[in-house]
Prior knowledge:
Layout: H1 6-17, E1 29-30, E2 63-66, E3 79-81, E4 84-86, E5 100-102, E6 107-113, E7 124-131, E8 134-141, E9 143-146, E10 153-154, E11 159-163, E12 177-184, H2 189-197, E13 216-219, H3 222-229, E14 234-235, H4 236-241, E15 247-252, H5 259-263, E16 279-284, E17 290-296, E18 304-308, E19 323-326, E20 329-332, H6 334-343
Antiparallel strand pairs: 1-14, 2-3, 4-12, 5-11, 6-7, 6-10, 7-8, 8-12, 9-11, 12-13, 15-16, 15-18, 16-17, 19-20
Amino acid sequence: MKRIAAPALAGILLTLTAGAGESPAKDDAVRLYFPTTNHHLLDDEEQFYQATIEKRSFGGHYGFVRSTESGPNPHYYNIFHMGLDIRPVQRDANSEPLDPVLAAADGRVAYVNNDPSKSNYGRYVKLFHQFPGGEVCTTYGHLSRVTVSAGQNVKAGERLGIMGYTGPGINKERAHVHFEFGFRTLPDYAGWYDKYGVKMGLEGKNLHGEYNGMNYIGIDSAPILIATAKGRPLTMKQIFGNLHPVLRVRVPAGKDFFYWQKCWPWMVVGGLQQKQPRSWEIDCDRMGIPLKFTPSDVAVSGPELIWFDNSLTTQEAFTRGIVEKRNGQRVLAKTGLRWFSQLTYLGD
């Protein structure tokens, strides 16, 4: 299997950007390398991000970068995009993309979907990576061909497949790899889906078990890629520290700590040695990513919103449907109730 060594992904850039007096990388650093040979994120974003059908390269960024409004200048960008859409730099005479898609870090192939009709990601690969600060996952979507198998260990820079345009709504002109860096919410997502998800509005069969895209939440990987390329990789705590609390939700405590708390114990005020409180107050960013768990003596029967940052502008306050305004007050929407049900599921 062809491997493009990790240093080759950023070696020249490291040499150019590593300056005198630069702090050495910490042992618990998260080194994330570019998942293709397109490194233009460092010098020309227009050549890095694939544009949407509306011809907006901004729509290839992470976050609320797409709009329900048509035209060149929508008033609001209210549609959430969980990854980066990276455009090809190599095409053949028929304009087919040729770019190899590469593992962004050492890891294990957790899942391969080779049936493009079964996912909005088209043909995709999901990797798990164990960094010193905790486990993360990366996803590589819309591949034309996959060259690895589930269970296989891979090194950073190892080829996973070839860029393509599989999946709905993508054509040859807009070929790209959809790249996500994020976190698993449950090891038993299938159990939660069958017991609660369908009742709470999710439709259809769960075709991918725990590897269903809704079991994962992504963050913006662009700063992590840039930091690695410049020889100053971030730690996991720094990555989470760059996210800002926007809402606080109180949820019932259970018989045990939630999976997210066990993955990131330093987020739990008082640690994992304490008794279970009556409830937890969870500070989250606007995508619903938990950042802090505070024990509470207030009893609640279900998730409830207790704080929202009302200083935010309309554009800043979009929450991918987690929070809505009802009778002039912000409350958890159906999507939010479902999200916190998923995050706090303890199984049977």
